[in-house]
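queue> holo job accepted (magnesium ion)
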Amino acid sequence: MDKKYKGVIFDLDGVLVFTDHFHYLAWKKLADEEGIYFDEKINDRLRGVSRMDSLDIILERSQKTYTSQEKAALAERKNEYYKSYLTKMTPEDVKEETRKTLEELKNRGYKLAIGSSSKNTKFILNQVHLTSMFLAISDGTNIVRSKPDPEVFLKAALFIQEKPADCLIMEDAFAGIEAGKRGGFKTIAIGQATKDEEADYKVQEFKEILNFLPPLI
Ligand code: G6P
Ligand code: MG
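queue> job finished
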């Protein structure tokens, strides 16, 4: 690989931590209470998508029309369920491989940032003791448009003062790969996103990203 990147922007859910199942359980509880059909396949469509946009996807299956106040209350309720799982997270919820790879990237001279649609990003990073790894955090609290819009990644690049072309995005969601591309970034896919033809690079294991990011210093 001839291109030298300077920054790496990581999605959080499904890349550094595996909160996807907690999202599923929390949405499932809410959907069951409301009598709305919901399954793992619908849950896949929620990857990388903001809380309110996720709710709209779930409500596609509902007979009832909800007011915006009712929708806000539903989203809040889901978040309460979700947070009850998050409070149980510990540093052990981050793989040793992930922690070591992040350390190595820092040692190699890369600026590391987070680009996540989640408003719980900072809470999760604190729970698993990863906050200090990142120079900047761009998340659901500093954007108005969620992935596949590139806003969250463009803000992350701005925060670390690098151009999109000099940053690599790591994503597990199709919406995230699209957001990266639209923002002018190169993307590395892991997990579900490896099925996405649009991704520039693909890895099966987190540590493989080191192959694309040689020492800068
Ligand atoms: C991430 C997850 C999505 C989730 C979104 C918002 O992007 O992949 O499934 O809907 O964050 O999360 P939040 O924690 O703000 O509800
Ligand atoms: Mg994700």
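queue> The beta strands are 7-10, 111-115, 136-138, 167-171, 186-189, 201-202.
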